[in-house]
Amino acid sequence: MVWSEQDAAWADGIAVAKQYAAAHEHFLPPTAAVREGHPIEVWAKNARAAARRARENEELRAAGRPVRSAAGSMTQARRDELDAIDPGWCPAWDTKWQRCYRLVQDHVQADGTLPEAAGDVVVRSERYSPAA
Fold first, then answer.
1. For residue 13, what are the contacts with CB-CB under 8 A and spacing of at least 6?
2. What is the pTM of this model?
3. Could you read off the pLDDT of 4-49 as tens digits, one per residue?
4. Alpha-carbon span 68 to 73, nearest angstrom
5. What DSSP assignment string belongs to 22-84?
């Protein structure tokens, strides 16, 4: 019996997130990523939005300002679950930048060299191009 649809959906999402991270060594799935029929990028995008909302609420409380609503924000326990999978899952900066960073990091760790002039690097069929 499912007591909470939200908790069940969270558990399913976490399971898929763990599988994705195990396969790719990070949890920043590309836009159209689907794993086992689960649209993991949509789930990740929604999780990042909820974590950012929680972070904004914490900053408002710390500044002594009122918080309009906690609706849609993520609990610390859930953020901790995702941090355990990949501490970089919810970067403060744009996720496109984070994906590029991860691709270049993987490329360099695989003994790849970076171009000396502006250009593209392709890693695991994903293109690193900071200007794109």
1. 38, 40, 43, 47
2. 0.73
3. 888 888 999 999 999 999 998 889 888 788 888 889 999 999 999 9
4. 12
5. HHHSSS---TT--BTTB-HHHHHHHHHHHHHHHHHHHHHHHTTPPPS--TTPPPHHHHHHHHH
Rounded Cα–Cα distance for residues 25 and 107 (Å): 13
Domain boundaries, the chain: 1-87, 93-132
Q: How many residues does the chain have?
A: 132
Segment holding 96, helix H or strand E: helix 95-109
Q: Cα–Cα distance between 77 and 87 in angstroms, integer?
A: 14
* 43-85: pLDDT as tens digits: 999 999 999 999 999 999 999 999 888 888 899 999 999 999 9
